[in-house]
Amino acid sequence: MVEIGKIVLDTGWLAARSTDVEINGVELTTTHPPTQPESPWMEAVVPGTVLGTLVKNKLVPDPFYGLENESIIDIADSGREHYTFWFFTTFDCKPSNNQHVDLNFRAINYSAEVYLNGHKEVLPKGMFRRHSIDITGILHPDGQNLLAVLVYPPDHPGRIPPQGGQGGDHEIGKDVAAQYVEGWDWMTPIRDRNTGIWDEVSTTVTGPVKIIDPHLASTFFDGYKRVYLHSTIELVNKSAWVADCSLNIQVSTELEENTFLIEHLETQHVSISPGASIHYTFPQLYFYKPNLWWPNGMGKQHLYNVDITVDVQGYGESDTWSHHFGFRKIESHIDSATGGRLFKVNGQPIFIRGGNWILSDGLLRLSKERYKTDIRFHADMNFNMMRCWGGGLAERPEFYHYCDLYGLLVWQEFWITGDCDGRGDPVSNPNGPLDHELFLLCARDTIKLLRNHPSLALWVGGNEQVPPPDINAALKNDLQLHPYFMKSNDSDTSAITPVLKDPSQYLDGTRVYIQGSMWDGFADGKGDFTDGPYEIQNPEDFFKHDYYKYGFNPEVGNVGMPVAATIRATMPPEGWQIPLFKKLSNGYIEEVPNPIWNYHKYIPYSKPGKVHDQILSYGTPKDLDDFCLKAQLVNYVQYRALLEGWTSQMWSKYTGVLIWKTQNPWTGLRGQFYDHLHDQTAGFYGCRSAAEPIHVQLNLAKYSIEVVNTTSEELSNVAIEASVWDLEGECPYYKTSEKLTVPPKKTLSTFEMKYPKSKNPKPVYFLLLKLYDVSDYRIYSRNFYWLHLSGGDYKLLEPFREKRPPLKITSLTFIKGSTYEMHMHIQNTSKKPDSNTPLYRNNFIRRNGSCDESDSSEPFHLLDGEKHEINLYEKIRRNLSREHSKAKVSEVNGTEKGVAFFLHFSVHASKKEHKKGEDTRILPVHYSDNYFSLVPGEVMTVTISFEVPPGVTPRVTLHGWNHHSGHTIP
């Protein structure tokens, strides 16, 4: 008997262009199967796309490198046959009597013919639908099975007009498919339109009865003390006799690794007629004070394991299903004070600070590992929501799994965008896809696929557009809220009213449906184009009351230049040329980028007539390295100011903001906090600072100090330290506030900064703010600004680069297999000015529910001699239980005192010899902080974690504005 369950078919695939294969699917899967990757067959990427397979086999160049995409023929010119491909594999499966086997495709694009052992099945159209074929009767008796899949591109792949634009000629909007593939103002066209088996392929083995699409829902009473779990499942009896079933549902929680506590175990009995399909609802399960699931920054992401099994009399265990489930309630309404949509989780309002998400990779090279990095990066930035934009994907369960783990709420849109569904050049079809029933079938199937994830917060009909009236009406009906979720009833002390239908019997019933991204509490709420803007801004403008009129901005964008190493890794030398700076008659500068940057959608750091060039404010860049470093300074300032400006008016004017956009699914040069290679920009750390749950900040418009408390607890017994530092390392201004109490969910304005109004202020200076606990001087929030006087610029920072303040770096390295965790302890050892400040050590307070995986190890201070270093080293080594660990102390010599400005780590592969321009970076890397600065005497601890490729020894390098020669920590 074959073990019941799922086997993923993700290895051993071959592929060939259909026009190069002279035999049919029956012959391929009977008498003439391909046996190895020889012409016309090649190794295939499954899950993946045709173009991904061609790139893997080097039959086309990397479309994300330089201008190479231009050398790949577009489907509009080649015809659909050019990207119609065969995919072939073999698998072993020999079920016993009374076992049933299904072949499952979680998604294909766009339609396909499936041949198994000479038998043909058709997979109908639609990019966002699952397919399941009962193959029990056509499996080969010896267990060796031959599978061939002929995949057809979308029916309407469209053509890219000369003017480009959003969604090309919009023909792709006639299909139920991702619309970004014809290109956008941030994306080049995808030549095969993502044709392929782009998601998981598997076989599942069951007994006579199969479980299909369980639905879990929870209801809360008595202030979230009394909780009920509701569950409904579909059961299919595949046998020819009545199946007497025992249904078991078990809910457990993991106490520690591989140790579980069973909270509930319930058994029910049901009989199912031969060949019948039934829906069965379990009796509700009662929990008292369960651990709740909270978004990032509000608490921990507690997840329970829900296991459902069906046992059939005379057979035994027939099928099983497992899922992580989080007890949480998400509500939203239009806030009367701001007009913006306000979200509440478990009864607590949450100020939304998040980003727009397109997809992980433009060629759909999706993986759990890449998803994990993507989602953790968003949590590391202290974000709490991701919007899955309507021109991209219905995101995959793996995406949602990591959002569940890291606490990212998800706004999931369906596949409607205004550009392809009613406007644009040429004007697009306003009636959405041609086949409305297909759209609704895909939508309903997507809902079933994703609805059990606690991170899923709301469904939205489309991007900057409402679906056609019949689709919109159907979605509103399908996604109507269960009465319990229509209004808050947290104070209700009674049990669930028996007359109410069980919420798990709804298609969803627990999440709101909003018809479009600018309707019903988003932007102006009426669908007018009141999101944006999308370019560089004067940082102080974000704080002004008239900057943005509406309560919740679903899209506001900005710059996103990556580091120089990424430019060199993704472009030939002619792409390393920095923009020309063209002075206009009005005194503003226009940036003129090279053609490769234009192709990669570069967005300039100037807005002639509104914003002077922000890179030139630091001095004319000399080369690519200089340009990209100055761009990082601007990235940090822009995105920190954006989020701080919104948070400054939390609840009084705004309920949330989503930045357009957090990353690029290719090697683009705009709107990103990390690049396609997974290296972060400085904007990443500007956001990380600004979006702290507890944060101290400077209001750039009023020049006052504010304390932000987004938590549900009052913050008491705290004070603010504000110190100004000049370029000579002196501290001309120092102030501590009186003891403060900050109410929960509040932005509190405190004192006005007096320094710029004092006598003889320096034209460029640094401001260091710290919010600390008065009783023990531990730090809640640290925020470092570089500022200039009104009407000035930062050009004095150019000669400041020659300063060399000394540093002491103590590194503790822990190694477990290929995993490295390094604790870098950095001290600016230049002489401290005479001051009574107590806050040089930066002993940060870690909060429960922090997204940092390294927070289990407390910050360490290695300033009190070798003995303390050794004792602490041993303590951390024991706690982390690494296989190998080592400590090292190194000095960076410097004779001048002053601020160590804009320090940043990077991790590289150690090589005795490497080619000039070779990218030695190890990516991805998670840093607890980066692009930071240290005043004289100050100490910072940075945790660095990463995986090392086999056979590679890593080295960590520290660079900085005035440490640009680099320092390597082996």
Question: How are the SSEs placed, and which strands pair?
Answer:
Blueprint: E1 5-8, E2 14-17, H1 25-28, E3 42-43, H2 50-56, H3 75-78, E4 85-92, E5 100-105, E6 111-116, E7 119-123, E8 131-134, E9 144-152, E10 201-206, E11 209-221, E12 226-237, E13 243-256, E14 259-272, E15 277-281, E16 285-288, E17 304-312, E18 316-325, E19 330-334, E20 341-345, E21 348-350, E22 352-357, H4 368-380, E23 385-388, H5 397-406, E24 409-413, H6 436-450, E25 456-460, H7 469-478, H8 483-486, E26 512-514, E27 552-557, H9 564-570, E28 580-583, E29 589-592, H10 595-599, H11 624-648, E30 656-660, H12 682-690, E31 694-699, E32 704-709, E33 715-725, E34 733-736, E35 740-742, E36 746-752, E37 764-773, E38 779-788, H13 797-800, E39 807-816, E40 819-828, H14 866-880, E41 884-892, E42 900-909, E43 925-927, E44 932-934, E45 939-947, E46 954-959, E47 967-969
Describe the global form: globular
**Main beta-sheet strand count, sense and barrel state:** 7 strands, parallel
| Named CATH architecture of the largest domain | Alpha-Beta Barrel
Residue runs with pLDDT of under 50 for 5 or more positions: 489-499, 849-873
What is the CATH superfamily label of the largest domain?
Glycosidases
* Strand order within the widest beta sheet: 26-25-24-23-22-30-27
Query: How many structural domains?
Result: 5
CATH topology title of the largest domain: TIM Barrel
Helix content: 10-25%
